[in-house]
Structures are given as structure tokens and as C-alpha cells.
Specification:
Elements (H helix, E strand, L loop, with lengths): L1 E10 L6 H9 L4 E8 L6 E7 L4 H12 L3 E6 L2 E6 L8
Parallel strand pairs: 1-5
Antiparallel strand pairs: 1-3, 2-3, 4-5
Helix pairs in contact: 1-2
């Protein structure tokens, strides 16, 4: 069955590039729907519907590789908050 997730991506250094974010999300296993819900202050909130469970490790990897920065992820049920680490905090 399809699962619906709300994904918030924060980058304290700059506004999140929506093109890069979309490319990262397309790397997941066949998303059924990706919809931008909000983009206030450069922080996108995305509704993501996929078949089955979301692999958060693959999600973190896809976003980290596409944006070329490390990310921290926290999940509470179907709500996911991802924070892109500033370049000076990576590797801590």
C-alpha cells in the first residue's frame, strides 16, 4: 500500500535548491507522488507518497549525495525532518 510522508528539509546556510531536492527524491524507489507543500524562507516541506515503507537510510544518502553535504535525520511516524549540515559542522 502507498505510504504518505511529510518531509521538511532545512539548510541553515542557504535556501534549499528545489531542483537538487527533486533529483534526490527521484532516486528513491519509484515515488508515486512528490508535491511541494510549502517553501517558506527557503525551507521546503514536501509531501512524498511511495509504495511500501520509506527507507530512511536511502533517503539520507540520496539527499546527502545530491546536495554534496551531510544530513541529520529525525523521524516521528510519517513526519521526517532533515537538516543539511553546514560545511564547517560536517564530520563532527
Amino acid at each position: 500500500l502507498p505510504q504518505q510522508y511529510m518531509l521538511t528539509i532545512e539548510d541553515g546556510d542557504r535556501a534549499v535548491d528545489l531542483v537538487q531536492l527533486h533529483r534526490a527524491l527521484q532516486r528513491l524507489a519509484k515515488p508515486d507522488d512528490i508535491s511541494l507543500v510549502s517553501y517558506a524562507n527557503g525551507t521546503p516541506v514536501v509531501s512524498l507518497r511511495i509504495a511500501g515503507e520509506l527507507d530512511v537510510d536511502k533517503l539520507t544518502e540520496a539527499i546527502s549525495e545530491t546536495m554534496d553535504q551531510d544530513c541529520e535525520l529525525s523521524q516521528q511516524d510519517s513526519r521526517i525532518r532533515m537538516r543539511v549540515l553546514s560545511r564547517d559542522r560536517q564530520g563532527e
